[in-house]
Protein: MerR family transcriptional regulator
Amino acid sequence: MLKVSELAALAKISVRTLHYYDELGLLQPTMITDAGYRLYSDENIEKLQQILFYRQLNIPLKQIKRLMDDPDYDHIAALEQHQLMLLKSREQLDILLSNLEQTILVAKGETTMSKEARFAGFSFDNNEYEQEASERYGDDAVDDANKKVQGNNKAFGEQMADRMNELYRELAELRALNPRSEQAQTAIGKWYTMLNEISTYSPAMFRSLGEMYIQDERFTANIDQFGTGLALFMKEAMDEYATRLKSERL
Structure:
């Protein structure tokens, strides 16, 4: 067992940070002594490492907690995803460093450089939504969605956008109902089916997406333009739908 000060020193974070993680319910000590000392087990240490991997990828603490509290959370799959994302980051950094090194030589008049080479390693392709989705769901699902919606098949993308807007309007008309009602669940089932035409969404992913609708102001504003409160209605309906899906698969 480690005291809070010992764990903080080991992980190179502050004691205050560990206290905050405890308050959030993100990382609670295995036990607290009669004297009030927090004691952390090996299991706590392993969990803290996973939390810090997420933090290194700039994922908010509240989202980390939701991910790690999810019954479907797979810590091995999460670690593999961390590894993949860090390897991609390292690859891009290596290209940028090579670009910078050559640029310095050009500036010194020691070599030449093509116009294309000057921009090697720069990448601003990923929009904010795509980056966030990649962090939460994995790059494979996002890449698959991009190929279907944003790739060369422009007609598919426009058609899908029209269908989504139509379904938003249908859901907006139902938002006064209980999200768990059969009518609401039938409509949100259409949303689940439509999303799975773009990529593959597990029940956990579908639930997390619904949470994003109310946690991220960008999503809320975009959805609520079809009707105030629609984002919250969809979130609650998606949560219920995901629960029912999971029960059916047990």
About this structure: The chain has three domains: 2-59, 75-119, 134-249. The beta strands are 2-3, 31-32, 38-40.
